[in-house]
Amino acid sequence: MVRAEGLSFGYPGRTVLRGVDLAVRAGELVALIGLNGCGKSTFLKLAAGLLTPSAGRVLLEGDDVARLSRRTAARRVALLHQAAPPVPGLTVRQLVRQGRYAARGPLGMLREGDDEVTSRALADVGVTGWADRPVDALSGGERQRVRLAMALAQDARLLFLDEPTTYLDLRHQLEVLQTVVRLRAERRLTVVMVLHDLNHAARFADRIVALRDGRVAADGAPAEVVTRRLLAEVLGVEGRVGIDGEGGWPVCYPDHPLDAFQLLRNENHIH
């Protein structure tokens, strides 16, 4: 579904991605992890066609995403951004309908009423009952579910989620992640999501890809990837890794951050 080949990108004065090779197969749920600034969000934007790489390319179903129009790319991949601007005055229904722009176009958006895809998106995340409520009257967790419905309304087979649990309490974090897992199975989606919580990644993802300094530092099933070495060399913390007694997934117990000397020693070790 997605293949990055030699993908590089930088902002003025700072290189973010350095020759990343990464393939995501149809139906996978992949979690991207790493420290702030390692290139996770940038990778999603490049793969969605919102940024142009300085080198390399991203293929969506075999096509170079940089050569696709924005509307064509949006029919293939829906990206839920980490943050969204305020939407004063919009109801839940009106916001979710914005996800239909790529399919319906500007003239189609003028038609009144929900199409079948919009109605399904509202129902799939359980917000049909809120459809006529103002978005800015919702709680953070409720608003995130509505934004997820808007992404689903694009009716794309690829779903990119950039830190979908940011600013949510634990209950709503679990609610959003369990909803994503359920929708992935029901809609046969391919999902790539950026997560900061390694325990959530280990529990909900099929595969974890860790980025460090703009490169892939680890890639594999949670049971293979989540180790004390990963905690130290990718996340910069000393910690322990156990196994959940009921689910069997890895569980991390971070103890303390590594100081600059230890981080430098780890860097010299792996290079």
From TrEMBL:
Query: What are the GO cellular component annotations?
Result: plasma membrane
Report how it sits in the membrane: Peripheral membrane protein
Q: Which Pfam families match?
A: ABC_tran
Q: Which GO terms describe its biological process?
A: iron ion transport
Domain called ABC transporter: residue spans: 2-238
UniProt keywords (A-Z) are: ATP-binding, Cell membrane, Ion transport, Iron, Iron transport, Membrane, Nucleotide-binding, Transport
Subcellular location per the Swiss-Prot or TrEMBL entry: Cell membrane
Report which superkingdom the organism of origin falls in.
Answer: Bacteria
Q: Does the keyword ATP-binding apply?
A: yes
The GO terms this record gives for MF are: ATP binding; ATP hydrolysis activity
Q: Where does the UniProt entry say this protein principally localizes?
A: membrane
PROSITE patterns xrefs: ABC_TRANSPORTER_1, ABC_TRANSPORTER_2
Q: Does the keyword Mitochondrion apply?
A: no
* Name of the protein in question: Iron ABC transporter ATP-binding protein
What organism is recorded for this protein? Streptomyces violaceoruber
